[in-house]
Each structure stands twice: as C-alpha cells, then as structure tokens.
Amino acid sequence: MKHLSDDDLAKELKQLGDVFRPSSLQIEKMRKSIFTQARPKKTFRIHTLLPTFLSLVVLFSIGVGLYMGLGESGQTNVTASWDGMYVQQISRTSPTYYVLEFRESTLTVKDDFLGAAFMGDDRDREKALQGYKIKEPLLVAGTYENFTVKHKGDTYTIVADGFSYELKQKGPRIFVGEDGIEFSTWKYLDTTEVITDDFTPERLGVVTQSEHTFLAEWGSDAMDRGEHDFEFHEHGKLVVSTDVGELRRGHVVYYHMPPSVIAKNTAIPEMYIGRVVGLPGETVEIKGGQVFIDDKLLDTFYGKATRRGMGEEEYFKNTPNNAIVTEQSTREYFNMNVDPVVVKENTVYILVDQWWRGTDSRDFGALSIDKIEGIIIGYEK
Amino acid sequence: MSGELWFSEYSDAVYSYIFMLVKDSHTAEDLTQETFMKVIANEHQFKGDSSVKTWIFRIAYTTTMSYFRKTNPLMYFFDLHSVRTEHGASTEDIVLLNSQQKQFYDVLSQLKKSYQQVIILRKIQGFSTKETSSILNWSEGKVKMSLSRALLAFKKELEKGGFSIETFIR
C-alpha cells in the first residue's frame, strides 16, 4: 500500500479550510455588530450606574449596621449581678461623698458630704472648692428607677433616666468613675474561682509538749487577730513542732528572718513567725487587699487585709472616728496591691496576719524552706 | 480606519480558523466578533514587529483558548476537547462536506489539540513556521517538531480508517 504523499495531504487540507470560510451574509452580520458596537457611547445614563450606586448604599448600610451591632454586642448587661451592690466613694479629691446603692430596680445615689453644709455663699464656696482636684462631679444625688449596668472589658456603664456614668475597674473592689472619683465596694465582681481553707483554725489552743517540740517567745502584734494572738504576754509561750513534714497553706511557721532584712532594720528579731500562704509552683498576688493564688481568690481569714482581725467595713464600723489616723491611708491599706510573685521550688510565700504590722514575703520574697525551724501548733500549758 | 480594512481582509480566515476549532457557526461568529473588537480596541498596541495577520491570529488564538477555558475548564485542562465532537453535533449539519473532507475533518478533530493547532495554522491557513511560532507563542523548533509529528499521526489515523492513495479522490 502506497502512503499518502505530503503534497496531496497539504492540498486536501487547504481545500478543507476553504469549506469553513464564512458566507458573505455572515461577514456582513459580523461587520455590522462589530462596527456599530465599537462606537463609543458618550451619553451618560443613570440606569447603567444605578446598580453600582445601589450596591454601594447597601454595602455602606451593612457596614454601619455591623459596626453598631458589634459596638452594642461588646457590652454585656450585668444589671442582675449588681443587685445588692453598695458602692462607696473613697477618694477625697472632690467635695462629695457618694454612696451608690443598687437594689432591685432602683439606684439610689446619696451624697453624704458634710462639707456642703459649711459652704455659705458663693464666695466661700469657691474658696472651699479650691482644695479639691475634682470640682465638678458628674453624679447627681437622687433615686433612679430602672437602671441598667453594662459591662465591657473593665468598664461598667451605669445607665438610668437622664444620666450615664462610667466606672472603670481598678482592683477587684475598686472603681474609678469617669470624672476621677474613686469608689470601693465589698462585693467581688466576676470572681469565679475560689480557694478555701477549711482546716486551719483561726485561733490556737493549748497543747502539750512532746520530744518533737520546743518553746518560743513572740512579743509582736504582727499576728494579732483581735485577741493579741500569738503574743507571749497574753497567751504564754508558743509550742513549735519540729516535725514539719509537708507544709500546708495556713501553717504558722517559726523561721530565721533572712539577714538582708535585718541588715536594713536591726529592730527586726532574728526569729520570726508568719503564715504560709503560697506553696511552691503557685503565683501569689495581692489585688485590692485580697490574696489571689494562681488568679483564684483565697477565701480564708488570712486571705485579705485585716486590722486586728477585722476587714475594711467591719473596721470602719467598729472603730471610733478619732481612732482612725487617716481614713485615706487606712483605706489604701485595706486595698493594697502586691505584684504577682512566682513561688519557686523549696520556697513558700509567707504573710503575717496583720499585714501593716509585720515583715514577710512582701518584703523579702518567697522564703526558703530550710530557714523554717518548725510549725507553731499552740500555746504552752 | 485600519480596523475595517483589516476586518474585510482577514475576517474569513479568522472565522474559518475559529470555526474549525469550536465546530459551531454561532460560537465562531461570536468569537470572530470578539477577536476583531479586541483588534480595534488594541490597534495602537500593534507595533508592526510581525504581520498584521499574525497579530490578529494571535488574538484569535487567545480568544478561542479563553472561550474553551471558560466553557469547559476541565476538558481544557485535560486536553479532552476533541472527545466532545464524537458526541456533539455533526459538522455536516453546518458545513457541506463531501465524504472525503468529512473523513479528513473527523480525523483532524481526533488529534491532540496542539497537533490540530499546528496543522490548521501551517497547512490550512498557510502560515510560515515563524509566524505559527509567534501565534502559538512556541519556539520555532517546537512548531517544526509538532508539525512533523502531527502530520505523521494524521496520516496514521487516516490509514487506520482505510484511507490510501488508491481511494484518494483528487
């Protein structure tokens, strides 16, 4: 069989191409549509741009809607949890003494400032105002129905008829108003996790001595919880057990004060006592006068700032005004802050019971366990 | 206006080129229109470094390829377009072909896409190797190689269908 020659093939292919050529009718049709369409349209027609306009408007409104929606949803309504809240002004930088009471659906704003009574005419008033940093406080005393409290980040916004007021949370119980006035509460907000101690007794009893104990004398009121606790002249000597075993939170230990502290203040006794608050591996922090262990609230008698065993409110209620040196600094004590400290292996975080009276881990950091001589288990017979 | 002149001169060649590839007269008309609209719109871009016809065919080629890509991305990707013709409308419906031409065209349609391109451009449209290389954006070597292979495959297919020099009608 003879093969096809390339020439024959080429010829046939050429002919094949001719078959596919368009008719003159088709060419005219194409020419018409090309050269009529190709002419540029110069007339401006609104309807051609209408879809663009419409979609822009829709897009814009969706954007605004989303923005507003998100702005709203960022705030959570926490009105219910503020029922029973009692917020008291603590700063003395304004001629006011506000007390905010949230009860059911009523918000009562009281101004218990006494100074106002002594301000006579406007001139006296101006003079009296000079001593205050905040001259125009924003809150107005009165009773407001149907308030709402919204929460976003660390900001609480109180909204009632006619006014809205922003409170910024500074500590667990400390708030700063938008005008700079500071408030405190005695209710913790948004604290979910709590560490408790059901074992440690608040007061020591009398114990008998054994071969694993020795006696120690303690004369300071650093551990006073209202009954001159641990003090030698009231209860006698302390029984210290050398059978330490494993240290638990709440144990009161007898230890060698680090020499660095004594070097600074020679009045501090070489042997000291204090309570174990933070154990190895934990992070101890004091926020607003409250101890937090790994961000959990330490809900025990030794977990917060006290004076002779009394917390802030109890103290101010039971102490005559003339016995309080300065209220501001006392309030500050009850709301003290200590930066977080990580307790390393073989060390413990020690606090005395009356923080303002004693020296402890707030001064020298976590204490090495080998400095501990023993655990105080009671008073001698 | 050179656009209209070019159209008068080359529209039938462009149309037949596209028609052979897409196998549908209406699509071929649309694509030819699209090609010339592009030609007119980009007239100023033509620098004269090739012949006008080559330039227009380059545009026709890319237009047709993007049409295939749009309509049948998967087929295009796997170079399966030729398979479609076996089930598609017979070319007899559109163009009057004698039995020999029909056989030629059917065999051509069964070849690889690149072989079809090179046969159509070189043998049917009569472009030179250099022109074909600039239309397809291939190297000249690739055009030459593809053409010889394509013709070989073409002949083989024809002979498989019982075509020989004896049955060839001149």
Describe what you observe in this structure.
The complex is a heterodimer of chains A (381) and B (170). Chain A is built from 9 helices and 22 strands. Chain A is α+β, with helices and mostly antiparallel strands. Chain A has a 10-stranded antiparallel β-sheet, with no helix packed on it. A 7-stranded antiparallel β-sheet of chain A has the order 12-13-22-14-15-20-21. Chain A folds into 2 domains: 77-190; 196-379, Umud Fragment, subunit A (Ribbon), CATH 2.10.109. The termini of chain A are far apart. Helices cover 24% and strands 27% of the residues of chain A. The model of chain A has no long low-confidence stretch (mean pLDDT 83). Chain B is an all-alpha fold and 170 residues long. Chain B has one domain (2-160): Up-down Bundle (Butyryl-CoA Dehydrogenase, subunit A, domain 3). Chain B contains 9 helices and no strands. The termini of chain B are far apart. Chain A binds chain B through residues 1-6, 8-10, 12-22, 26-27, 29-31, 33-35, 37-38, and chain B through 3-4, 7-8, 11-13, 15-16, 19-20, 25, 28-29, 32-33, 36-37, 40-41, 95-97, 100-101, 104-105, 108, 119-120, 123-126, 151, 154-155, 158-159, 163-166, 168, 170. Chain A: InterPro entries: LexA/Signal_pep-like_sf, Pept_S26A_signal_pept_1, Peptidase_S26. Chain A: It is a single-pass type II membrane protein. Chain A: It catalyses: Cleavage of hydrophobic, N-terminal signal or leader sequences from secreted and periplasmic proteins. Chain A: One of its GO terms (molecular function) is signal peptidase activity. Chain A: Its EC number is 3.4.21.89.
